[in-house]
Specification:
It contains 23 helices and 22 strands. By secondary structure, it is α+β, with helices and mostly antiparallel strands.
Length: 631
């Protein structure tokens, strides 16, 4: 069926459909209940034919003129005119009324799918509270520029992409990332347009204009995705075009066949018109896009963007999921994993360590400061701080000189590594020693940690059937083994010490067993992403580069979304198979009835349009949001 109606035309479609049905109702009343004046009946039939036939005829002629394609709409108009020509004008009106209804419902359903993400644009406020030299002034959101600062009050929507400059609070980011739980934001954290500030007063520094915002990028990508046809959709189009020509030619030839077996001219035309309706492939052609568009919209609402139906179909067929470790399976941020205190209390030891690391920009120092902040501790005041590159840091507190560092700093101070500390130095984590002079006060181990959702996501992927998992990293083998063990991976699923080219080689090898999806950050590992059948970037909200880099984009740092997206993709393929089976089966029954059992035209009409409505409604079941519900 034609997909040319726009949102602006949807109301007109509805009014014309109502007019067509009113005309049909009057004619039906005359035929079965109460005779009416013939002029009124013929006028009603004329209204029904015009309101139900002109829109598809206009579309069909436009397709024929502009694209040199025979549109399926033309079959319906020809069938209705043929019915009228043999004295079955009422049946022709029924055909056009049902066809008009199914087309209107299809267009409105597809419009709903298309607008599911575009509705995000309606969520942003028209004005924002900009902080400037003159104070807080309300200005149009379109006037905001990178570097501006805006005040975000509790309950307000974020007007543009930015980062928190002052304040802290929780934001509802479900509109962008699909994450249902509120996310805490502190200074330095990014915030996205159309999300909601739940509590706290935030000062947000603008980083993007409206035209380049995360939501604008989502709209652009989803619109492009809906225009990119999957293999199933391309086959559906190919089939529809060639089959339409075959039906038109076959219907003409069938008239001669019916005449040859003894039917008179009028009856032969009636039988040919019935065959034309029965053999029309409307349900077959709409089977695939009804499911694909619904699934794309459901996925986008759940925080997963597919670059078209091909990516959706590809994910459903993936056999091997290859994961980059750092920043994908892990947080990408160092975190304190163990604390061993040899002298004093643990809180005092941590406070001293944080005081030493207060001036350092090293990721290890940042991990210790985060641990202290989460515990609500105040770092000890340390003076005369001095850094020794690749060794550590020294300083002095109220009790005298202190130091923190690695084995080289231990040697510098003349201290000896205690046996209980030596057991922590297994090479899988970074060990930081803290001491005074030649005494070791304790030690802290720091390492990149698995994401909270990674293990659950891997279990869900494996539960989806025969699935291979690969973890790839450039880190040393002990580090990779530690993370792999935490995630429940077997030794043969862990690959460490890899260069970018090594990852491509592994993807190549996995591709011999079936389709491969590579999951990374969308910026690094570009070669592996390109080589994989399906490239998946995660946590890309706010990252235009990452959004453009992959076939599938997970807006949040939640790998459970990948497992849910795979379930949706597989469910979509099942719905497509159901639709095609239903459509082809119904068409075969109707054609057989038309050729050999003198199927009445009204039954052919009901069977044809009923099948079309069923496949559209079956596809729309995918609009329910399984990614958000199960992810």
């Amino acid at each position: 069926m034609s997909q040319h109606s726009t949102e602006h035309d949807e109301d007109a479609d509805l009014y014309l459909t109502l007019l067509c049905w009113i005309g049909l109702g009057i004619a039906t009343l005359d035929a079965f209940l109460q005779p009416l004046p013939s002029g009124l009946v013929w006028g009603a039939l004329g209204v029904s034919f015009l309101s139900g036939g002109l829109p598809p005829l206009r579309t069909a002629l436009s397709e024929l003129w502009d694209d040199h394609r025979l549109d399926i709409d033309l079959l319906m108009v020809v069938a209705a005119l043929a019915a009228a020509a043999v004295g079955a004008a009422l049946e022709g009106a029924v055909l056009l009324a049902l066809f008009s209804l199914s087309q209107t419902l299809e267009h409105r359903a597809m419009g709903k799918a298309r607008r599911a993400v575009e509705a995000l644009m309606q969520l942003r406020p028209e004005t924002a509270l900009r902080l400037g030299p003159e104070g807080v002034v309300e200005v149009p959101v379109a006037d905001l520029a990178p570097g501006d600062r805006v005040i975000l009050r509790p309950g307000a929507r974020v007007p543009v992409d930015g980062r928190v400059a002052e304040g802290s609070g929780h934001l509802d980011e479900s509109t962008v990332t699909g994450e249902s739980a509120p996310m805490r934001k502190v200074p330095g954290d990014p915030v996205h347009e159309a999300t909601v500030n739940l509590d706290g007063i935030l000062t947000v520094e603008v980083t993007r204009t409206l035209a380049t915002s995360t939501v604008a990028q989502m709209i652009k990508l989803v619109t492009e995705a809906q225009a990119m046809k999957s293999p199933s959709e391309r086959f559906s189009d190919w089939f529809g075009q060639r089959y339409t020509i075959a039906v038109l030619v076959g219907s003409v030839l069938s008239w001669f066949g019916f005449r040859a077996v003894g039917y008179d001219g009028g009856e032969a035309l009636y039988r040919s018109a019935t065959l034309l309706v029965a053999a029309s492939p409307c349900a077959v052609v709409i089977s695939v896009p009804a499911a694909i568009l619904s699934a794309l919209s459901a996925a986008a609402r759940g925080g997963v963007l597919f670059k078209g139906g091909a990516a959706l179909e590809g994910l459903a067929e993936v056999r091997t999921f290859a994961f980059d470790k750092t920043g994908t399976l892990t947080t990408g941020l160092a975190a304190v994993t163990n604390i061993l205190v040899l002298e004093g209390e643990e809180d005092a030891f941590l406070a001293l360590t944080a005081g030493l690391e207060a001036q350092s920009e090293h990721p290890i120092a940042a991990a210790i400061r985060r641990e202290v902040a989460e515990r609500g501790l105040t770092p000890t005041q340390v003076r005369d701080v001095r850094s020794y590159p690749s060794e550590g840091i020294t300083g002095a507190d109220a009790e005298g000189p202190v130091w923190a560092g690695n084995a080289r700093m231990l040697a510098r101070t003349g201290a000896t590594l205690p046996p209980e500390v030596a057991r922590l130095a297994d090479g899988a984590e970074t060990l930081i020693l803290v001491g005074r002079g030649s005494r070791v006060l304790g030690a802290v181990t720091v390492a990149d940690e698995p994401r909270a959702t990674s293990a659950e996501a891997l279990v869900a992927l494996k539960a989806g059937g025969k699935t291979d998992i690969l973890m790839m990293t450039g880190d040393r083998a002990p580090v990779a083994a530690r993370i792999g063990e935490r995630l429940g991976l077997a030794a043969d699923e862990i690959h460490a010490g890899l260069l970018p080219g090594d990852k491509v080689t592994l993807v190549d090898a996995a591709a011999k067993r079936g389709k491969v999806a590579f999951i990374g950050d969308g910026v690094n590992d570009a070669a592996a992403l390109a080589r994989a059948d399906v490239g998946v970037a995660m946590g890309v909200a706010g990252s235009e580069v990452a959004l453009q880099a992959a076939d599938v984009a997970l807006m949040a740092d939640d790998l459970r979304k990948l497992a849910a997206a795979r379930r949706l993709a597989r469910r979509t393929m099942r719905v497509i198979r159901q639709n095609l089976t239903l459509a082809l089966g119904a068409m075969a029954v109707l054609v057989t009835g038309s050729l050999f059992f003198e199927l009445p035209l009204p039954l052919a009409v009901l069977g044809h349009e009923g099948g079309t409505l069923l496949v559209v409604l079956n596809g729309l079941r995918l609009l329910a949001d399984p990614i958000r519900a199960k992810g």
